[in-house]
TrEMBL record, chains A, B:
Belongs to the tRNA methyltransferase O family. CDD domains: UPF0066. Signal peptide: none annotated. The keyword NAD does not apply. Keywords: S-adenosyl-L-methionine. PANTHER family: TRNA (ADENINE(37)-N6)-METHYLTRANSFERASE. Residues 28-185 form the TsaA-like domain. This is TsaA-like domain-containing protein.
Amino acid sequence: MISNFIKRYFTNINKGSITNINKFRITFDPIGYIDSVFPKKYGTPRQGILVKESEGSLKILGKNALHMLKGLEEYSHVWLIFCFHQNQHINSKWNNKENRTELKFIEGESRDDLPPTIRPPRLNGKRIGIFATRSPHRMNDIGLTLCKLERIEKDIVYLSGIDLIHGTPILDIKPYIPIYDNVPDASFPQWILDKPNTIETIEFSINSLENLQKLLNSNTENINEAKELISQVLLSDPRSIYRKKKRADQPWGFIVKNLYIQCQIKDETIALIIDIKEKDKFYSDQIL
Amino acid sequence: MISNFIKRYFTNINKGSITNINKFRITFDPIGYIDSVFPKKYGTPRQGILVKESEGSLKILGKNALHMLKGLEEYSHVWLIFCFHQNQHINSKWNNKENRTELKFIEGESRDDLPPTIRPPRLNGKRIGIFATRSPHRMNDIGLTLCKLERIEKDIVYLSGIDLIHGTPILDIKPYIPIYDNVPDASFPQWILDKPNTIETIEFSINSLENLQKLLNSNTENINEAKELISQVLLSDPRSIYRKKKRADQPWGFIVKNLYIQCQIKDETIALIIDIKEKDKFYSDQIL
């Protein structure tokens, strides 16, 4: 059996091109769905590691969750492999389907139609190949993020430093093992180190702080923690290139937990938080 | 639209359990299939980083491959996200199907039937949850491996330090970015540092070296490189627990490139390479 396998498929090895290999379409069922402080794509930071205060949790599906998690609590950090489920190319044809149960390319649709390059925020409009970035807009909508493991309670994994939208389907958790995963002297392009963000200072208006105080239940949540989280999100500058370039001085908002944060960027470097409203009230008032 | 999305799905945030979220089954098409020196699961090292001499390549499928790879050459290391396509649970029901085109659970088959724990080689038989390890036997057959990017030629990515079987379907390539991916002080369980392997010394018999010399085309391949690769594979000790415990002193073999390496472990620490044969000849002689 093995012998036949080898004869059939194991040809042209190390000649740079593989032939006669079986090609597969591969299907996964998520192990769970992330519960995050970021309800939508817009405003979600690009790297969780930059927003240490962001929190989330993952309930593992299946009756054996407790066994599957046994021993994971001994690690301080984990990789999450997830699906960028809000990518437009997988969503555009599904938008009006209430009960969609599968995310995939429509049969017959070619991936060759996807843009093979993107404009990362740091490159100021220059195009680069999708495989040279961590952009969500990739051939397969698979993301990889490193986050801090806070604790495990029964079948729920509590995490911080996450950059995932609420409801993100998680495909796998893998422990972070520094002896395998650290390559401190790995080289990478200079533009990665370029200053990605222009926002340097965060100012809260008196009005916004008063509303924040009212909105938070002071028994369970700390106003300083909320301020810190809002500031970290802004310092990571989640604005799109379009908004930075074309609408830089216009009021702008994003959501964290149950808060809608309305702000304005002054002189490209100062984010003034004008107001903080309750998310649900905001949503019932207007459409984003 | 967004507002409805939030109202419908964004409930119970940060209460540790997510409800009313849409559940998806997710399908991917590989971006390519790995061309590796390891033709089969048996004998493939567990961590590519331990076997720096191992080589492979990945031809990116699709007409836009060159654009998709633009800029990747500026990184020294990359993550490969791949599918453990030879896992038994996805293969057992497919074995006799010559033209399988999809890897997935059979409809109606429950993942609850999969063992939720495994015995990692270092734990000497003790069971641990699948999410606390990098074991291939997981809920979703997704693997994550860090390897060295040697060079890119047209649509082919040349890699080293890989631990992948020939023909492995690759789902994504992501650049390794030390400023995001390095957490040098991350903590992990002590057993990760335990000595995983007992093999310390590699000895080549005169016969094996003579055959190696004959089998390698000295114009293109270097006998010292082959010896180094064989030694690295053995020092990483790819034997199964069963073989280590029950059949430790019996002759044993594995394949690297076109070579079948027959060896015997002496005193649990010395690997004596008895003979080196041509892979194809070996396969035509006997069934593994």
